[in-house]
Task: structure prediction
Amino acid sequence: MDIDYRFLSFLDSGLANEIMETSTIKNISKGTEILREEQYVKVLPIVINGLVKVYSKFNDKELLLYYIATKESCIMTFYAALKNTPSKVFAVTEEDSKILLLPVNQLATWLKKYPDFNILFYNQFNLRYSELLDTIGHLLLDKMDKRLYLHLKKKMDLTGNSSIKMSHNELASELGTAREVISRTLKKLELENKVTQHAGRIKIIDSW
Result:
């Protein structure tokens, strides 16, 4: 398997060996849908490098749930796989990504055999729950300019890039608002010298 063993060093060595023997690796290009709603889960992803966006849809509107970064997995996919129920979410690569795909028919065995495997997903659950609380807090307390600024900063931190290329429509979809609101808010942030826009790329130039 084309993977540095140290990538799995946070797991029990026996579990890491079994994962390396039974799993596969895929290089997936940016913008690829790797899971859709109502699809039954056959493999469980762990991101080696890259970034995956997980979202749901309500009345044809996208609702961003969370991102899966390096050494992280998808708790919603994990639950659907264990219960053998259709997925309730979509997942798409935000960057060119290398992803380790674990066979779901091994999950129940590994959960019983290796306590570390339980810890991995307890940690994922705690991470997503904390992110959800943060999101609710921002929705209740922050105006759109701060929400947009923090969203841009998070995406830049996750990708390691100094700027991001996203359309106003894409940002509106992720933040659950209208394109016109995003355009107006970005203009306000530009006038306040917090961000710049050039050739379709957005860059943060000052702290909040």
Notes: The longest strand covers residues 61-68. Residues 4 and 48 are 10 Å apart (CA to CA).
